[in-house]
Design brief:
Layout lengths: L1 E10 L2 E11 L4 E5 L6 H8 L5 E8 L2 E2 L5 H6 L2 E4 L11 H8 L6 H14 L1 H5 L10 H13 L5 E5 L7 H16 L3 E6 L2 H7 L2 E6 L2 E7 H6 L1 H8 L3
Parallel strand pairs: 3-8, 3-9, 6-7, 7-8
Antiparallel strand pairs: 1-2, 1-4, 4-5, 9-10
Helix pairs in contact: 3-6
């Protein structure tokens, strides 16, 4: 579904990711593992059109989207669940969810999508009129996922979904990601939490210092103890 071919990108004069190639398989969870500073966020920004690609290309459903504007990429079915639970704090849960469906003009379709989100996150229905900024961290994490689902995407990119959450909510977040995938959603899961990620992913890549240093099935990555020790300690 998504193919990144020999991509190089960065900021000012510095390359942050260099000659990166990977594929996200339709209907599967593909993970990108890497420690802080490995270049994961730069790669995501490049996929979404937020960073200029210096060389290489990004293709989605067979179309080269490397030079597309971010809103055009979104309209093609790619959505990102950002790190840090970036909700619109002064807007209600309802307004946040509706913002996720900004490309949809049919109110009946939006209403149907709301029901699907509530089925996944009943708590959001309970908090429908509440200001998002007054919710707990775990509830805000639900809202960011629900808001992304409201766009009816083909591919969901999760950027560090475990960041800043308690162990209980981390476990719940990964359960939800797995459940979303089981319903047919294609997922690119960008994380540094090795154990939780490899428990739900199908295929993975390891990014270190801006380069892909390993890739393979989850079973192959789990068995690579030397690689895990080198990049993730005892994770």
């Amino acid at each position: 579904m998504l193919t990144i071919h020999n991509l190089t990108a960065g900021y000012d004069a510095a390359d942050v990711v260099s000659d990166v190639s990977l594929e996200v398989i339709k209907g599967k969870i593909t993970c990108l593992l890497g420690a802080n500073g490995a270049g994961k966020t730069t790669l995501i920004r490049s996929i979404l059109g937020l960073n200029k690609i210096r060389s290489g290309r990004v293709s989605f459903d067979g179309v080269d989207i490397s030079s597309f504007a971010t809103h055009d990429i979104a309209s093609r079915g790619i959505t990102c669940v950002p790190e840090g639970r970036r909700v619109f704090a002064k807007m209600t849960v309802r307004e946040n969810l509706q913002a996720g469906a900004f490309l949809e003009r049919d109110s009946d379709v939006v209403a149907e999508r709301l029901l699907q989100v509530f089925a996944l996150f009943p708590k959001l229905e309970e908090r429908f009129g509440q200001l998002a900024g007054t919710m707990s961290g775990g509830e805000q994490a639900m809202l960011t996922i629900g808001r992304s689902l409201m766009s009816n995407p083909s591919l969901m990119v999760f950027d560090e979904p475990s960041l800043g959450l308690s162990p209980l909510f981390v476990k719940e977040n990964f359960r939800i990601i797995k459940k979303i995938n089981e319903k047919g959603m294609t997922v690119l899961l960008v994380e540094q939490n090795v154990r939780q990620t490899l428990a739900i992913a199908h295929y993975g890549y390891v990014l270190s210092q801006g380069k892909i240093v390993a890739s393979g099935s989850v079973d192959a990555l789990k068995d690579n103890s030397e690689l895990r020790a080198a990049y993730f300690g005892n994770a």
